[in-house]
Amino acid sequence: MHIPKCAGTSLDTCLSKRWEASRQFKLLGPTLYGGFQDYDSFGPNVRHWIHEDWQNCPVDIDYAAGHAGAKWFDRLYSNGQKCTVLREPKMRILSHWLYWRTFSEADIGNWGTYTPRLELARCDLISFISAPELASQIDNVIVRMLLYPHPLIPGDDFIPPEHDADLIADAIEAIDQFDFVGVIEDSELISKLEAWLGYSLVLTSENISRPVPEDLRHPLRQDLTHDTWAILEARSRLDQCVWDYVVEKYVQANPRTMQVSAVAHSINRFAELMR
Asked: Which pTM was predicted?
């Protein structure tokens, strides 16, 4: 299960080398698109990856990966082994904003009537994370991907706080069903993956955020206001609980110590991309 901006493309590239292309399946499921359904407006090189109905997906394969919810993989490949990797949630959102911010007109042109949502990344950060139409892409995405579909999770709006405890409990139960779980902040992530898989991996950097176009650059500190941080906290409050749980149980590290280091490192890197 590939959660966006969690090094999933890099992991997929090295993991998928093990199997013939004909025995693999890559997909974009509806989890990240909320109520949007106009997939046929997408360019063919994007539409090819979209599978809005899990019943039309191939099952006789050896390897599957993509932006699809855990329940999709359970339905399709109940006998398979599942793995996923998480990222400090606020930094995941920042990385998502900056990644979309680098999209050229040609990149955006492939996304049909979804384009106005992608263009919101050209706004300031607080506008981006305040847009309800982007909720399925930025609002507690770890929990959304673990639980989609879920009656307490709206597709085109932010998750209300009334049922946080129930959603956190459900998400933790879901993450415990994975055969391997890690976080990209763990310096031993690759060696742990290799031990689980039983073979060596060569990880390369893939799909990383590029420097932001010059006309969209400004000092990152302008975006990181008190109000923006408060909204980032809201957009990641559920994911933070899941990330903390994984760091404590599976990485066996102190979540706050790892978070402080991860945030400092990411902010410095993101500031360079905006400089």
From this structure: 0.95
